[in-house]
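Q&A log
Question type: sequence-to-structure
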Amino acid sequence: MKVTIFQYRLFHYRQRLFELMREKCIAAGIDLNLVYGQPYGDEIKKKDSVELPWGIKVKSLYFPIKEKKDLCWQPAPASVRDSDLFVFMHENRLLANYWWLLRRSLGLGPKVAFWGHGRDFQSSAPGGLREKWKSLTLNWPDWWFAYTGLTRQIVQAAGFPEERITVINNAIDNEEFVGELAAVDEAALAALRTETGFGVDDFVAIYCGSLYTEKRIDQLLEIAEQLHQRQPSFRLLIIGDGALRSQVEAHVGSRPWIAYLGAAHGARKATCFRLSKLLLCPGAVGLNILDSFIAGTPLVTMKSAKHGPEIGFLEHGSNGCMIDDSAEQYIDQVERLIAEPAELARLQRGAQIAAQEYTVDRMAERFVDGLRAALADRRQEQTA
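Response status: OK
Response body:
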């Protein structure tokens, strides 16, 4: 049986997933193909696309419709049109999805599966036309590859059959980060303490991520202010960059108990996490929750933030904390963890256990299991 996955461009963080999937598909007797296009507009500047020698690169057509919005047509090469299953990203802008869904409805093409979130978790207009259209299309494919359990709930609520949904638990390749954390030694930690001015007995929390409005940086800084007043040993380490960088730098300048180090990657990022005991992010959470798990640094966030679907990995009181939109409750929760080392240690263990579940290898396994199930469904259809 033959499967083709379409990506309008090939992100670097998906390379390992597709390599693992190809290995597992070969073992399962599945001919896996990957068709990918090229970045467009501002995407080119990000330089986050890669190529795979076994993938099929095509020239996609982009049609700008307004600032930072476009439509994309991605062709399907003749070599993959005999596939038993096409897997498309569930995005309104991808025109080829509609063409192949139409052909499928007429009995002229392969089965069609969607892979995605189910809705835009960070939409500024969740009741707008784009989201209404996205919701309308939830029932159109033959199969669903859901990012997380939250996506499954959304798709099921739209009436899509549960038995045709595969939850893949979105992840990225973090083996390098695991190795970097293991390599951090006492000399590296001592050097970072010297750089930040933090002491051995200080309670260090970290913020790691982009600096933009949806991350609630203002609230993070205010929460840190209150925590330091109540617990003088509290310290905040901030790593990341973005539009609010100058605001953070201005705030940190008069507060020696906060250290801002800019963007940090590799060994430096790992050392920052090893120095820290909690990850504070009252705003939007996405794949950065995996950093929390891998480093054993429990995440504390707020329920009302515009989280990505990966927030479904957080289990309150088990591997992190989800606060009901109250800065006071957030402060109280962190203060309790400072005062109760045994409770903090329990959450840290929970985070490390979660790290074993949400890996790119497990994601690839789930994806291929879903492909096998969808193809088995296809065989039943052909013999009916």
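Response note: The chain has a mean pLDDT of 94.
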